[in-house]
Amino acid sequence: MTDISTLFYVDDNTRGDDPSQANDERGSSGGAESDSGFTFRDDAPEDEQKGKSRWLRELLIIVGIVLVLMFVFTQFFFRQYVVPSESMEPTLHGCYGCTNDHIVVDKMVYRFSDPKPGDVVVFKAPTSSWDEGWSSPRSSNPVVHKIQDVLSLFALAPPDENNLVKRVIAVGGQTVQCREADGKGVTVDGKPLHEPYIDKQLQAQTYQQSGGVLGQGSCYGSDFGPIKVPEGNLWVMGDNRSNSADSRAHIDDEFHGTVPVSDVRGKVRFIIYPFSRIGGVGSVDPQS
């Protein structure tokens, strides 16, 4: 029979009480851990670079979309203009050296219809006689000039043309004239106009300040006409009748002071700045 102590002795040996055996087992265990195949690496810089690239790409896409929308909106629907002129007082406020009205022009309306009497319109100067006193807003530097041309497509720079704002008084086929002696003021096809947009007190003040030169009589200026407006053209005048270089001042040009409809940039709808003058700009038909 085997002694029990011998059994315990044998069990102790099999459990690896031998130091050398124990070291071998620990060494094998450490080797297993080191050969497990897992590698730890810091990916933060790479992820950060990818994040920046993604952010830049998304930003460029957003900017591109905004520019496309601005181009379409500006070229086909609405555009802001600043026309420094006191000729449309009190409907529009403007003068050199002061805060001029910023107006929004509807470019879509005249794609489907023609301007009508009473519409306040922005138009390009049709002949050189309208350009007196005007200078291009473009830089003399050819590179900057081209950049400004591109910016203008997105309404980020003014167009390189002399834009004016006036009210339509007569359209193609109608005859316009004014004779101070008859006391009727401006007439279209022999009928006097109804013009509530004219500030008579302002005309009287202009008359006094000019020493009787401007704002005189029922015409608020010199006699003119009769002039028959060619088809496809407009006769335009300022609401500040005594202080407006409108169609009357260009009778000697090739269009006899009239403006081709093709030169009209749009109908004035709103004043958006200064904030104290925000509001709509209505059409009052003077022939009604």
Describe the structure.
The active site is at 87, 166. Residues 1-46 are annotated as: Disordered. The chain crosses the membrane at residues 59-78. It is found in: Cell membrane; Membrane. InterPro entries: LexA/Signal_pep-like_sf, Pept_S26A_signal_pept_1, Pept_S26A_signal_pept_1_CS, Pept_S26A_signal_pept_1_Ser-AS, Peptidase_S26. With 288 residues, this protein is an alpha+beta fold. It has one domain (77-280): Umud Fragment, subunit A (Ribbon). Helix content is 28%, strand content 20%. The protein contains 5 helices and 12 strands. The chain has helices at 4-14, 19-34, 44-76, 142-153, 200-209, and strands at 78-82, 102-106, 120-124, 163-171, 175-178, 186-188, 191-192, 224-228, 233-237, 259-260, 264-273, 279-280. Strands 1, 2, 3, 4, 9, 10, 11 and 12 form an 8-stranded antiparallel sheet that branches. Strands 7-6-5-8 form a 4-stranded antiparallel sheet, with no helix packed on it. The longest helix has 33 residues, at 44-76. The chain is elongated. Mean pLDDT is 84; it is low at 1-17 and 19-34.
